[in-house]
Structures are given as structure tokens and as C-alpha cells.
Amino acid sequence: MLNSVLVVARKEVIDSLRDTRSLTSSLMYALMGPAVVFMVSLASAAASRMDAVLIGMMSVFTLVAAFVGGMSVAMDTVAGERERQSLLPLLMNPVRRREIVWGKWLAVSLFAVAGLILNLAGFALVFARSGMHLPWPAVAAGILPLAFLAASIQLLISTVCRAAKEAQTYLSMLVFLPMGLGLFQVFFPVSAHAWFAFLPVLGQQLQLEYWMKGGSAAFVPAAALGCCTAVLALLVLEVAANRLHRDEIVYGN
User: Fold this and answer.
1) Would you say 171 and 75 are in contact if contact means Cβ atoms under 8 Å apart?
2) pTM for this structure?
3) Phi, psi of 60 (to 5 degrees)
4) How many angstroms separate the first and last alpha carbons of the chain?
5) Nearest alpha-carbon partner for 73 in 31, 103, 33, 117
6) pLDDT tens-digit readout, 234-250
7) What are phi and psi of 188, to 5 degrees?
8) What is the pLDDT of residues 80-103, one digit of tens each?
């Protein structure tokens, strides 16, 4: 099974790397947040203390980066292949459809994680100017799984859409999910509850804000949030795999 999954993932990664325009767009989205915050910090007299709103905006940019990194890849993996009539020949191979979905998910996740890491590295450089450092072990345990969840949701949406253009529309709208939840939390912080720390998206934002304000990096809460996010990602991925057994999904009728 693992070999089949890796073969599908390799095929999707190679195909996606040929699309330099989409890669450039994803790179610009990933680095947009650090660039904006860096310019604000240069122009603001409050750069040394990083006020709460600015830190909140930084966390929102990071959440969005997890969703835009693999967006163009997810758009092409199922909806794009069905539009080019190459999905059915792929499904006719002696490989379980769950393995095909897992391979495509690994490819989308690779680009989503890369975009998220670029975003975090950019913010790490901004923080280095003020002598602060991100707790990378806790970040890896709690924040990176959000990219896997984003890849699962995007792949599910791609299986529903009939064409790449339709997938692009819905995947672009999906970006408003982390953006809307993040901005709500920034401007209405009193609405936060303790159990928010274990919810995907909201939990990642709360952890990022806490770390960016200089809070201690506790690995166990970060790992617990990461596990909750990973479990949800696997559940969404299973739904996407089940949809490939439906004729209207395969043939687009």
C-alpha cells in the first residue's frame, strides 16, 4: 500500500512543480504576512513591544498560509484530472481508491506544509530583530498538523467539483474560514474559552498568539492540539476516499 501511495504522491508532486505560476502565487501568499508585519514594525514606534492587534494579525496570516500553500495542487488533483479525462484511467489501475486519495493527499500536504514553514520562517526572522524566538518543537507538534487538515478539506472539495474552475472558486472561498475565525478572535478576544485550545484553527491561533507574546512553550498542550487536528484530517480524508466510489464523482455526471 505504501508504495502505491508514494507513487501517486510522486506523480502529483512532479505535475505540480511544472506549474511555476501557481507555485509563485503560493509563495507570495505565504510570505505576504511576514513582509507586511516587517514593514509595519519598521514604521511603528511600537515595534519593540508588538501590540496585541499586530500579533493577532500575524497569527491570522499564518493560518491562511496553511490553506493557500496546497490550494492550487488540490484544485488539479481530482477536479482538474476529471476535466482532462485522466482521472478514470488512473482509477482503472489495480490500486485501491483509498491509496490513490492518500497519495494525492500527501502531495497536497507537502506543498501546504512548505507554505506554512516559509511563513513561520519569515516571522521568525521578524522576531529575531527583537530577540524573540519561536519554539520550533512545539510549533511542529501543534501548528504543522493544520496544513494536513487543510489538505484534507481541499482534497474533499476537489472531489465534489466538476471542473478545475469550479474547484478554484470554492477553494478560494475556503481561505475565508481561517481568516474569518482568526479575525473574530483578534477583535473579540474576550469570547475565547479554555476548550478553544483544542479546536483546530482556533487552537493554533491561540497558541501562536501566546508564543508571539513571549509565553512559555509547553509541548504537551501543543501535541494534544496537533493530535486533535490530525484525527480530524484523517476523518475528512476518509470521506474524500469514499466519494471516489461514487459514479457521479468519477464521471462528473
Assistant:
1) yes
2) 0.83
3) -65, -45
4) 30
5) 103
6) 999 999 888 877 766 66
7) -130, 65
8) 888 887 777 777 777 888 888 899
